[in-house]
Amino acid sequence: RHQQTYGQRALRQANPTAKLLLETIERKKSNLAVSVDVTKSKDFLSIIEVVGPFVCLIKTHIDIIEDFEPSLIEQLQDLSKKHDFVIFEDRKFADIGNTVSLQYSGGVYKIASWSHITNAHPVPGPSVIQGLSSVGLPLGRGLLLLAEMSTKGTLARDSYTEDAVRMARSHRNFVIGFIAQRRMGGIGLVDEGADSVADEDFLILTPGVGLDVAGDAMGQQYRSPRQVIFDSGCDVIIVGRGIYGNDLSLVDVIAARAERYMAEGWAAYMERVGSNH
Ligand code: UP6
């Protein structure tokens, strides 16, 4: 199990975004990320306003917003400053280097200009990292590789997952960690014995977290914050529908749910690091 504190780990990160996320977690005593998967700007902003105080990170799918305008990004950035959270656009890039560099920097959303973190499927091989890094590294951004998924029947397992760790290892300046269901890298999955490997410290952000139901009708599978943070040694719980629910007008209920997940995630972390804190 990973017994160092978030604060201790922040000190050793070379990537500025990895450092920022760990410092934010420590400062706010929250390892909760909320995934705001709603389709109207008004709901998007009002949910972020109420959960903001309880999160280290807000995860977006900016391309599902049906009334998107560039001013939405300014409002998101204002909320990020006001409530002190990191922004993660869950774009899941998966194309050749040249294409992903254009998708990341340009188009309607210009993701690289505002999202501290984004992610990519390792399926194209190292070129996907090279393409994204050419845009993101000069901006101090960080990339997560999808080493595993939360869904039933995922193909991201076994040697695919291990190769994702090896790919990350060759791009340590830009790849800050993984979307995965358990700790990997360093002492853990794919420990190849070298000192540099034992020292490496990838961040593990984990979706598929819910306290009240086991899954949805489309293959999603949920585990509890304790299973994710304590049993599996992950760093951040990512919660969507478990927090914003299906009535977006119930802002007090949404805030209370965020507070509950934050408390459970932090308690599981305190149990994991024990007297180190
Ligand atoms: N997500 C997963 N599983 C993965 C990777 N990403 O659920 O392996 C993303 C989804 C969604 C969020 O795209 O935005 O995490 C989970 O939402 P939920 O909590 O409402 O199920």
TrEMBL record:
It comes from the Eukaryota. Its EC number is 4.1.1.23. Keywords: Decarboxylase, Lyase, Pyrimidine biosynthesis. Pfam families: OMPdecase. InterPro entries: Aldolase_TIM (IPR013785), OMPdecase (IPR014732), OMPdecase_AS (IPR018089), OMPdeCOase_dom (IPR001754), RibuloseP-bd_barrel (IPR011060). It is an enzyme of class 4 (lyase). It catalyses: orotidine 5'-phosphate + H(+) = UMP + CO2. Transmembrane segments: none annotated. Residues 31-256 form the Orotidine 5'-phosphate decarboxylase domain. Gene3D superfamilies: Aldolase class I (3.20.20.70). The active site is at D90 (for ompdecase activity), K92 (for ompdecase activity), D95 (for ompdecase activity). Substrate binds at D37, K59, S150, Q220, G240, R241. One of its GO terms (biological process) is 'de novo' UMP biosynthetic process. The keyword Transcription regulation does not apply. SMART domains: OMPdecase (SM00934). Pathway: Pyrimidine metabolism; UMP biosynthesis via de novo pathway; UMP from orotate: step 2/2. One of its GO terms (molecular function) is orotidine-5'-phosphate decarboxylase activity. Belongs to the OMP decarboxylase family. PANTHER family: OROTATE PHOSPHORIBOSYLTRANSFERASE, URIDINE 5'-MONOPHOSPHATE SYNTHASE. This is Orotidine 5'-phosphate decarboxylase.
